[in-house]
Amino acid sequence: MFKVAAENARNYEWQYKGKGSNSWITFSWQDSYDTAEFKLTILNEGRLTNTYRCKITGEDGTAVYTDEVEIIQIKSPEIIRQPQNAEGKIGSTIVFSVEAANVKNYEWQYKEKGRNNWITFSWQDSYDTAEFKLPILNEGRLTNTYRCKITGEDGTAVYTDEVEIIQIKSPEIIRQPQNAEGKIGSTIVFSVEAANVKNYEWQYKEKGRNNWITFSWQDSYDTAEFKLPILNEGRLTNTYRCKITGEDGSIIYTQEVLYIR
Question: This protein's superkingdom (predicted)?
């Protein structure tokens, strides 16, 4: 709908010109073309690209023209980048995000495990934004499924892919390293088996000392199986362990092990 307010008007004529054209055509076949409020049905793409104005003839016979106006096309929503699964644990805050075009509003939703009904997070800050921050308050939030309902400028709705929270866990040692036999010139192997591991660091402390030193210069020092050449007498008398960092950033240490001659 286009409308104009004018004084001393005798009649109105709504007109249009096509894109790239200079000639104005009066909508004489269109209902309401001769009123202050013009209702125009958008029948085709051309009407979206036309330019419009109203010719107003006054009581004295002179004519004036309104500013030229256009129709701004409202479009369906389009998802450009889908949200991805997020890693988290109870007590942390995760972020789901989506990138979309032609958006009127967002609504982040969840459904509980084993259920089909979706619930909008209307009480949660940022639930109506492209980037949704969710505190993981309980076990349920780790097992829920999540998505975003996106309503477009034209009122139609689309839904993102469903995503989940991948729980990050503390490390757990399944099998401890054992003492190893060796001699100068040989290579011994210490190994550990653990779950939920982000990284390993094999360390040593010298006899009679308390500070642990990471073998950062030694191949395989950051793996579950550590191969160590016995280059000197000191390596036979050192004590060894592995520092294990979990997916959640927490740290545990294996039992201390030795070389046995």
Answer: Bacteria
Q: What is the pTM of this model?
A: 0.65
**Six-digit token string for 81:** 């980048």
On the CB side of 162, CA atoms within 13 Å amount to: 9
Residue 21: how many CB atoms within 10 A of its CB? 11
**142 burial via Cβ count (<10 Å: 0-12, 13-18, 19+):** middle
Residues of the domain holding 87? 78-167
Last residue of a domain, one of 167, 183, 215: 167
pLDDT tens readout for residues 138-164: 999 999 999 999 999 999 999 999 999
CATH number at residue 149: 2.60.40.10
Q: Is 194 helix (H, G, I), strand (E, B) or coil?
A: strand
Number of domains in the chain: 3
